Here is the input.
Amino acid sequence: MAEPVIRIEDLTYRYRGQREPALDGVSLEVAEGEFVVVMGHSGAGKSTLCVSLNGLIPHFFRGRMGGEVRIRGRSTREGRVGEFAREVGLVFQDFEAQLFSTNVALEVAFGPENFAVEHDEMVRRVKEVLGQVRLEGFENRQPATLSGGQKQRLAIASVLAIEPRILCLDEPTTDLDPIGKMGVFEIAEELEEREDVTLVIVEHETEETLDADRIVVLRDGKIAADRPAREVLRDVELLEESRVMPLPVARFFKERGIAIEERPLTPQEGLEEFKRRGWRVDAERHQKLVAADEAREKDYGEPLIEVENLTHRYPNGVVALEDVDLTVHQGEFLAIVGQNGSGKTTLVKHFNGLLEPTEGSVRVGGVETVKQGIRRLGERVGYVFQNPDHQIFSDTVADEVSFGPRIRGLGETEIEERVKEALAAVGLEGREEEDPFGMTKGERQRVAVASVLAVRPEVLILDEPTTGLDYAEQQRMMELVRRLNESGSTIIIVTHAMWVVAEYAHRAVVIKDGRVALSGTVREVFSHEEELRDLALRPPHIVSFGNALGYPVVSVEEMLQITGEG
Amino acid sequence: MKEIFTMWRHTQMVVLVALSAAIYAAVLIPFKGFAIVPGFIEIRPANAFPVVFGLLFGPAGAWGSAIGNLIGDFFGTLTLGSIGGFVGNFFLGLLPYKVWGAFFRGRNMETNVDTGKRLLAYVAVTVLASAVCAAIISWWIAVLGLYPFQVFFALIFFNNAIIGGVIGPILLYAFYPRVKRWGLLWTEILEPEEVSASRLQRIGNLLVWIGTIGAVVVGVFFGLSSKNPGTPGVVIGVALFLIVVVIASLMLGGREQVEAVEAEEEEPGAPRVSRAR
Amino acid sequence: MDPSLYLDRNTWVHRLDPRTKMLLLIATFVLAFVFLNPVYELVILALVVFFGYLAKVLSNLRRIRFILIVIAIFTIIIWFIFGGGNLGGVIYGISIAIRIDITIIAGMIFLSTTRNEEVAIGLVRLGIPYRFGFAVSTALRLVPTIASTGLTIGQAQRSRGLDLDSGNLIERIRKYVPLLVPVFVSTIRSTNVFSMALESKGFGASPKRTFYLQPTISWRDGVVLAVLVALLVAAFVLRAIGFGG
Here is the structure.
């Protein structure tokens, strides 16, 4: 093998002010044209690894670095970031923070401008690169007016225009909706094909890593595995230990006691293996699951939120919702899914009075929302916004959580009790005096939930509660939501994460272009796989697996329950 | 005062200029408050930001305030007055960190408001910087012959000083530990040699107050005693005192504040950069 | 959300080089300040409004008419009070009021015909250092983003019970804290990623820098500038030979 393009030797890095190193003795080689995926939990050192590739470590951060990173033989210690930036293109997760220009063409030209590329060459690159990421015709658009997926593609284009031979994408799809994700994956696939481009992608979405040459799993700053992709993906035990979401089909076979080497990965492979082993589905047991769904529906209480012929038009004339009917009963767990811009968030903002219907009506507890006002509605309907940083403002967790009760004029003892109760509910008891801004994203998300719970609402709306969290944090968040539901809260989540819908929600409503496209129990909705695909929503692998067998299931556990020996 | 030029070498400082300008301008829009003289003076919660930016981001905060104010004009009313607004807001961000250094000379120079003394210092620099900012803008408006000095001065001064005094300390108290944790204090980003050393700092501190009070007194006095807003008493008198303010801010330096941070960094445990992801 | 005044009309005014438009704006300011005479100011006002008509952007006047009227009234009252409470003071006030309205309308026409990015490019082309121009244009780009974040934050806090419209002045000012803190923190939090992304794209990598946009000075710019110079000369000549004063 020729000299590797990336050679990392015993890299250790500790950020200043941190006790634990972010990376601890990492050694890694990547050959020209390879496609390597990096996985790991939050704080495992993935981003640190990325920024060490172009010299941001050690030059940008003033931490302590040990070991060596060589790009085409040259140590990153020896040159400035600007020099390595020609070789290594870096795309960050946060697309908002990496677009600087006032229109798309200028954004793409920004890198070449910095490297003083001649004008004609620059024009050529802008055209070529925008073609590659399918943004032709967008040259004069302001980046702010693009969708999330388009922004991320633009961010990739603006790095490609520098023509780096190594491209590193740090969680490029985490903040995107399903269509946005697909767009980015398509570009990534084309880049994989190219022999002259070496690709390093940090990714959460396990289902998208199947094509990688290798997967590197990081755990607490160390390399836990560095093996061919399929080998790593079959090793469910390793992934679970590393707090990375395993492929559900592989997990199913693992739970059935199948050895690592024999585990299939995709629904298709799973289906073949299932049949080859002569397993079969116990129809009776599946019928029980369906019956349980029905029984659960009967158990719901009174209608709590009633939406009738709701139409919402924004002041600029755009129709965001059209003729929506929906009833949410007490005790339900409802998931609202759809692409960005489909009207999901507009819909739920009607439930707590943030928006008022243009036509039709929204009633909460039998009374029209317009007659109740946000403040009073807020006591019945709690709303947790997507980004916890958009609501946290206090210096301590206790102050933050007590904001709602305090503003409603409750007494001090009452406030204290509620703060305690809310923090216990989210698993943050004893951390009252901590600074919420110093917590991890998952913890901040839980502080935001607690601050809404402290008002003791009957309904809890959560907008994208799992975005930006790793697998373990997502599970933890959703277990919390499930507990709240089981103790009587009505839950409404807006989400892109299909596995979350499948595993936790009872009922799903799919919104498309402001209208309800599909509605029913999660099992029903996910059994319409074709329609979902048309809506660019892909059910989780385990659901597809069940559907392919003719028995819709929502989780690996259900699949295990209904599987019998042949 | 060379740091207002050398800071542009640092990518983080350039970004902080852009971000603080954008925050300042953006907050003007959705939280517009209400106008006293529409197009010229409004009660706006954003007015608390320049002093806070200055204490956290130093020269980047000064530039950010100046540009932010100009951009605010871009979304409404761009007039000749905008030039005065640019310069005035620049000093609104610049003076606080300079004077702070003189106040806490030889002691802990952290720009947090965690003690009564520091709160007092905060109010003092807010009053001072608001007065200078208001004097610069009102002087410019008077030079243009538009309004008498005292009218504009009173409007801008009270607006900035009241809003800044009421919520500025709360904001700074909330921001300081975070900005420090992210390693974004100006004293952490700049190198000592990029910042002017102070000369005769105590006299400089005295002069900045004399210049400010002088500019205000002269401006109001001549403004009241003449029908012509562009009277030489205002145009020349205020200008002379404002020059004193500029000279004083040259004397106030700022390198000591950077050196203090460097010294602190020698000891372990000073958090610099933590990344959420 | 886009609070910008820019109106995307296809007129020759819009197609002028941003530098020409900047000079035009400055020249208008100068013209308005050459004389202080109500008749003269009215003539300049008419010229400015006519120019706005040619640029098809007068509809924006409606957006600022309230400001124009209030400023005019305020100015006249101030000058009535400080001008000695007589007719002379009122006339003086009217002249000043028209002068101020001219600068506001001229600024409005400039902003209605010039994109924000053109302003930034114009600045750099006029010799302002690149990094300064970069900061201005980046700030301009971020304003709508941060403003809409601000609206989201407002919604989040109102959902939690924040009510901005009650209490005395001090209480009302304090109620902005739950809005301002998240705006600041969520924006400044991204500084390091932002800076890293910049450096990763070679920001400051090379002392020389090329520009994608090339200047496009046309004959129209020449004509406009010639007319401008003629107007300025005429005004100064009139002033020199003793008109107005």
